[in-house]
């Protein structure tokens, strides 16, 4: 699956007073038809995309689907398969933030309503980068609740992951063959000195928390103590073990040059740059979860020479091929995102209006060098990769082939399936 994405982050800053809406500042609300033209120009058939939650979900049981109806009908007409991103770093004002204990239940209702309205959609990322969202919102103090303590972090994390699982349950009730592609940041922490080894080990355990809980995997003993010390109850922890939907998932992971960190003896960290690289870090995640892999995000700035992003694309693609060649089932690759982005250089925690040249196209919708290179890469490799193994073909139905009767006939109790998960392995 060769993919791109249309960035739909919408966290709040300034203690909830200011909304950062990337679809707005990148011009998507006005130029969405042009954006879909750009997707097709590259030859891409898969698009990470979702409705703006704060404009769509107006209250309990109250929705404005006007924009979604327009754009998703057009995606269907063009036979672009969406990987629907339902929650990307923010919630509507009326929900508050990720400290709200009602968020999982409320989000599950929203996910169910979306799946009911768009039954032909099969691929979902219910909640994007749960770990990063919890860290930036409740550990670094950058977004949403803007907290900076372990208890707030654990609270945000458990609510995000529970919402993701409950959302999957509601979607599966309506589309029994739905496939969930996690988009989670893949991290690694390098010790700067022997005195930093202990802290690095803790952080390297912590990086797995969101996916451990999401996939019903028992966390490491140190992390179990950490969770319970910071507000998670045993009953809450056991809920994650009892609701295991791993069999419906693809391990989507994101990798940027900032995903590796150097840890110092006093505990502070700095970016380490590309040290291990995508293939080595993905191997660590794959060995832990044993799921098919999709590279769901990467990018790099187009610098003064104009070929910096092109070189990064080639390097990431080489890493993807390396994974496949050593037997790790890798089913997709994504350059994120379609167009340049605004204020990514400050992780969206400031509204400066800085345009960051990260996209396949600039904000005038003119193709960048990396867009031309990605188009050629797709043309070169599209018909080569499937021949390697039929086992690497994901059971995706074409957008136009959906039949409502398939789900009506299934008659499955997905909630019961989740509770009986351990017996299924």
TrEMBL record:
State the superkingdom: Bacteria
Q: Where does the record place a coiled coil?
A: none
Q: What is this protein called?
A: Family 1 glycosylhydrolase
């Amino acid at each position: 699956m060769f993919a791109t994405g249309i960035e739909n982050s919408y966290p709040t800053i300034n203690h909830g007073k200011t909304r950062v809406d990337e679809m707005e500042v990148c011009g998507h609300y006005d130029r969405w038809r042009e954006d879909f033209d750009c997707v097709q120009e590259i030859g891409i058939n898969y698009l990470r995309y979702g409705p703006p939650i704060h404009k769509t979900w107006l209250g309990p049981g109250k929705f404005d689907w006007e924009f979604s109806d327009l754009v998703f009908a057009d995606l269907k007409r063009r036979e672009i398969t969406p990987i629907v991103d339902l929650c990307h770093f923010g919630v509507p004002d009326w929900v508050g933030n990720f400290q709200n204990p009602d968020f999982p239940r409320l989000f599950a209702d929203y996910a169910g309503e979306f799946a009911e309205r768009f039954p032909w959609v099969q691929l979902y990322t219910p909640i994007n980068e749960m770990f990063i969202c919890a860290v930036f919102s409740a550990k670094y103090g950058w977004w949403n609740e803007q907290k900076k303590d372990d208890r707030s972090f654990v609270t945000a994390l458990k609510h995000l992951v529970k919402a993701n699982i409950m959302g999957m349950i509601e979607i599966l009730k309506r589309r029994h063959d739905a496939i969930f592609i996690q988009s989670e940041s893949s991290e690694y922490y390098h010790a700067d000195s022997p005195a930093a080894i202990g802290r690095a080990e803790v952080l390297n355990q912590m990086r797995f928390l969101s996916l451990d809980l999401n996939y019903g995997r028992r966390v490491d003993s140190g992390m179990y103590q950490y969770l319970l010390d910071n507000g998670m109850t045993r009953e809450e922890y056991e809920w994650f073990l009892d609701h295991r939907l791993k069999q419906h998932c693809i391990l989507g992971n994101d990798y940027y040059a900032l995903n590796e960190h150097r840890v110092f003896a006093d505990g502070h960290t700095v970016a380490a740059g590309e040290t291990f690289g995508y293939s080595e870090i993905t191997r660590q995640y794959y060995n832990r979860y044993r799921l098919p892999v999709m590279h769901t995000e990467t990018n790099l700035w187009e610098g003064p020479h104009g070929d910096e992003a092109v070189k990064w694309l080639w390097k990431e693609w080489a890493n993807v091929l390396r994974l496949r060649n050593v037997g790790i089932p890798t089913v997709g690759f994504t350059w994120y995102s379609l167009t340049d982005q605004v204020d990514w250089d400050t992780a969206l925690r400031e509204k400066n209006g800085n345009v960051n040249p990260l996209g396949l196209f600039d904000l005038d919708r003119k193709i960048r060098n990396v867009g031309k290179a990605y188009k050629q890469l797709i043309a070169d490799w599209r018909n080569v990769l499937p021949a390697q193994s039929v086992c690497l073909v994901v059971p995706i139905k074409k957008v136009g082939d959906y039949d409502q009767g398939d789900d009506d006939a299934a008659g499955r109790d997905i909630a019961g399936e989740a509770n009986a998960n351990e017996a299924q392995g």
